[in-house]
Amino acid sequence: MVQITSTPATTPRPSAPPRGRVSKFLIPEVIFGIGTLAEVGGAIRRVGGRRPMVVSDPGVLAAGWVERAVPHLDDVRVQHHLWHDLTSNPKEVEVQSAFEAYLESGCDALLAIGGGSCIDVAKAVAILSGNGGRILDYEGIDRATRPIPPMVMVPSTGGSGSDVSQFCVITDTARRLKVTIGGRALVPDISVTDPELLTTMSGELTAHTGLDALSHAIESSVSQACDFLSKGHALAAIEGIVEYLPVCVQDPYDLTAREGMARASLQAGVAFTNALLGATHAIAHQIGGALDLPHGLLNAILLPHVMRFNAETHAERYVGVAQALGVDTAGLDPGVAAEGAVGRVEDLGRALGIPAGLHEIGVDPADFDQFAHNALRDAYIATNPRPVSEDDVRRICLAAY
Ligand SMILES: [Fe+2]
Q1: Cβ neighbour number for residue 350 with a 10 Å cutoff
Q2: How many angstroms is it from 338 CA to the middle of ligand 1?
Q3: CA of residue 284 to ligand 1 center, whole Å
Q4: Ligand 1 centroid to 205 CA: how many Å?
Q5: Cα(400) to centroid of ligand 1, in Å?
Q6: Can you give the pLDDT of all 401 residues of the chain as single tens digits?
Q7: CA–CA distance, 147 with 149 (Å, rounded to integer)
Q8: I want to staple 257 with a disulfide (CB 3.0 to 4.6 A). Which of 52, 147, 153, 244 is the partner?
């Protein structure tokens, strides 16, 4: 007779698996492709908008893109109100006047057609519409807690990534710095990328916004918050930028290159909204807020110096970046591979006409202390791979000068 025995109580039970790292990944509905500007009316209807405020800027208007979009709104009986009174590095006063226009015109949704400035102002208006107050009250993460109106974003530059991100950046003119506002509510409902819109950018704007996208891709791929979901997008974005950005600058109407660059920008945006950024952006925000200089230009100048600073302690994180930039890293020490990556970024900047240093664009070293103080309070400093002190920021600024 077989005796059935129960497991003795003393048998060790398998322990629960250790809790690993948790990954979260947020992106909007994405519509991508040449000719997709025609989708804007349907997109607005789908998110429940009947009277969107179209946020654009004088340059995009002059290029004719708003005019091209309007019939697609009319087709689905969507009545829009156009607002375009903003500058680059959008200021809190511009947000306030956009919000007043939104209220006065009885709008119920936001449709941005433009670069990062237009998209960021549209997000800021959405926050105020749902939450009240002044936009600078929402500095930080998840400060806007109430529901906000639906948002559809149509980027016209290959760079900001704001059409897919959970962030907007507004200039505080009193403190002369840029404020980052973030939160999952700020992820747009729909992003519509039509690469044809990129064809009307000047060579200079193409270079600046493209190198902003490169900064997003590189900073997010080495960020403390980078995971497997962001990494692939970031590295693919780097490869795309290396391949297509120089062609876009040389031939603005090469639609294949513009499409490649729009794809890279989108992937860089998807990576950084989830993995966040680092010291390049944290420092660029301070200089840009104080001197109203182009965001992408500042990132382009600062990026190699921040990479070099980070690689002193975290060289291994730049091996994949180096490969994506075209460096053959086989058999290379991580430090040498990282220096190879820095060299590629410097070469690309030079080829695209980026000034050699901050001294060429009117930055005064006397302001470095202020930049250092403020950079350490920027939302993106926390995810830089290497801890950063005020002294480190001054060192990086001096190297970039
Ligand atoms: Fe950026």
Answers
A1: 11
A2: 22
A3: 9
A4: 13
A5: 18
A6: 444 444 444 555 666 666 777 888 999 999 999 999 999 999 999 999 999 999 999 999 999 999 999 999 999 999 999 999 999 899 999 999 999 999 999 999 999 999 999 999 999 999 999 999 999 999 999 999 999 999 999 999 988 999 999 999 999 999 999 999 999 999 999 999 999 999 999 999 999 999 999 999 999 999 999 999 999 999 999 999 999 999 999 999 999 999 999 999 999 999 999 999 999 999 999 999 999 999 999 999 999 999 999 999 999 999 999 999 999 999 999 999 999 999 999 999 999 999 999 999 999 999 999 999 999 999 999 999 999 999 999 999 999 99
A7: 7
A8: 244
206 CA distance to ligand 1 middle (Å): 14
Contacts of 307 (CB under 8 A, 6+ apart): 218, 318, 338, 341, 342, 345
Distance, CA 6 to ligand 1 centroid (Å)?
63
Q: How far is the CA of 77 from the centre of ligand 1 (A)?
A: 35
Centre of ligand 1 from the C-alpha of residue 272, in Å: 9
Q: How far is the CA of 278 from the centre of ligand 1 (A)?
A: 10
Alpha carbon of 104 to ligand 1 centroid (Å):
32
Note residues around ion ligand 1 (Cβ under 5 angstroms): 212
Edge-to-edge strands of the sheet including 177-182?
140-141, 177-182, 167-172
